[in-house]
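Listing S7. Sequence submitted for prediction.
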Amino acid sequence: MKKRLERFWSLFYARNMEFLRDRSSLAWSMLFPFFLLVGFSFTFSRDKPPEAVTIGITGPQIQVWQPRIAALPQVKVVILNDADEARDKLAHHKLDLLLITQPQPPAYYVSETAPKGYQAEVMVIRLLEAQPQPPPSLFVRKTLQGTEVPYLDWFFPGLLGMNIMFGAVFGVSYVIVRYRKNGVLKRLSATPLTPFEYLSAQVASRLFLTAFTTLVIFGGSMVLFQFQVRGSWLALFLLFFWGAASFNSLGVMVAARTESEELVGGLLNMATFPMMFLSEVWFSLEGSPVWLQKLALIFPLTHLITGARKVMNDGAGLADVWGHLLVLMTLTLVFLTVGARLFRWTRR
């Protein structure tokens, strides 16, 4: 056992030092998320609203207003049956505007910090002004001040999750493939080192490096943008840990038999790009087809980001995100098991 630990530690230490001495890669992995946050902080303002908007409708007169709203250009209509759920979706930027069609009095809710809220409000006001019944004065404008989540706060967990995903899968996969290609793995296979020891050292090293870079990004962003963690810090730590572990294991599985950096890069892009666009990193899937929303649930990034947003934005505790943690732990076990069984030391 002592010798196993010594071999594990040697590989763990060597890989960490290899990454930390590559200062350009280290600096870029930590600075790039800051660049994105700064860019988004200037981009998403009322002066530059995006074109497409999502408008939710709830209340007894849904059938009256749904065709009118849907006829507007660049509008996606979402029908909701529960007013409280609808307001919650608006607060979390899954809707840009909410129209409640109850008769006493009808009202529309708008989020003051939503990137597309201003455009949605202008479009709805114009529609209301063109309607003979009911008159526009019956529609009361209401806001969610005090309960809404600013867009950058909503986006920040997605940015962290995306950075963890790319750093983990590419960091593990490229190292394994490069070592296989230049013969390092062939030489290691002649030592007492076992595949399990090698893979576990690689995964542990990347987990350590991911934790280091994420801590720097997280701490710096908290200072610069005053983000808050309203829920359990333990739950947030476990989400990030098991999220990184699942992506590390995915990288191990992809690189288990791959022999070139070009191929592994293509395979990883094929695995990560759908997650980046369907896991609500940049935008909500509210209003998209139901089958697409269900498809997104198979991705580890979806559970990592959704759980992190619940903790950071909604004040969730460990019990509230246990389902997401269970999925991440299961995916980690599956990816790592398949990767270990497929692993090969040398090229064909």
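Caption to Listing S7: primary sequence and predicted structure tokens for the chain studied. The mean pLDDT is 79. The radius of gyration is 24 Å.
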